Amino acid sequence: MTHINFSSKDIESINTLGELKKAGYKPYSTKHELRKNLINKIKKSENVFEGIWGYEDTVIPDIERAILSGHNINLLGLRGQAKTRIARQMIQLLDEYVPVIKGSELNDDPMNPISRFGWDAVNENGDETAIGWIHRDDRYTEKLATPDVSIADLIGDVDPIKAASLKLPYSDERVIHYGLVPRAHRGIFVINELPDLQPRIQVALFNILQEGDIQIRGFKLRLPLDIQFVFTANPEDYTNRGSIVTPLKDRLGSQIITHYPKSREVGMKITAQEAKLPNDSSVKVIINEWSKKLVEQIAIEARSSEYVDAKSGVSARLTITAYENLVSTAERRAMKNGETEAYVRISDFVGIIPAITGKVELVYEGEQEGPGIVAQNLIGKAIRTLLPEIFPNPEDVRNKKESIDPYRTISAWFGKGKTLDMLNDFNSKEYKSALESITGLDSLVNKYSDVKDKNEKLFLMEFVLFGLVEYSYLSKSALVSGNQFNDLLSSMLPTFDEDEEINY
CATH topology for 8-257? Predict the structure, then answer.
């Protein structure tokens, strides 16, 4: 079977069925089209799914195998795993332009029409049948499955207005108003969140997937629809709203399981790609790599947290919106202080809490704690995980695996009854002065990191403070607009006046 890819230049000179035949065109299926174009890309070592990270050795090979097999596909996975994005990128495997009978609502192939309109046009006009061209972007149809989706929406229904205006009896198939599925003929049709579709609506898809015929209000139409179906779904045990009926799953050629990034680095790449940062700000915001790692680590902690429902999942949108909020927090701080440059701080992470609370579904214990507390807990756990990647592990120090306690000088400074107020909106001078007032903090960062940038050094100094809280070296209490750091022991004991006698 000849497969011709028509370019925008070719279509300008082909306007009739006769001219199309002379060009050597032969009808072929959408699945054949996807297969041939995928084969060409694989042979040329071209990336089919641009911007999809972490699936190179897992999901994408499965999708390519499904396309080569001519299968309809179900992408099964938790939210935020790029299922819809993958489906949308399959458009790039379609030919740039394909011919249709001009005026056909079902995108009839001029040499293989399936509708009454298409047959009549070819029978009446022969080689003079007018043809049009549709771009691959117009051959993609997407529908979000909701409980109120009807058979009329997907398949079609009798249109009494059309019957009246054309003066046709209801027995004439021309009174049918076709739904989304027939109108997706010769294209890709995607149903997102398939389990949310009512079972009786799922049943209506059986014959379309297998035999290619449909029934509308008593009309039994043989419509050999040529569609690449792609469904997306969450695992059945995630939602009580519904499930995929077994006979429908049986008619799907390949079910492909998606997953979250398997490494922090892949997650960071996705976040950097997807985050939408403003380019009109008067403030230059600088974010170091440790801040980016911390944002990603928060999502990793959330996916294993006892407070978060693992069945619900933690979308990649958490890290994307958290990253955007982090930048905005630093930007806002700089503007309030009249500064033109903002270097992200640990204290700026207070600004990402709204991005966390709306992205995680809590279990009962988490609801008891409250979403704000859970969000702070996740940030704290992420800091705890990252601290030993730069500095000695405080657990090893505590268990005497380290011969010297590198944090002793810092904790001793607080042990003398001193406290540190770290306000969220400190200007650069106040921020620097507060951190440098702590004995031993500066020398610790100098000893265990090779940081040369002064702002990154201050970031790591603040990072150590927050990390020592997580390892119970220090205590931290919330202020109205910041945090106060104290010695852990003194924070647990009552305070006394200097002249007050203490009786043991």
Answer: Rossmann fold (3.40.50)
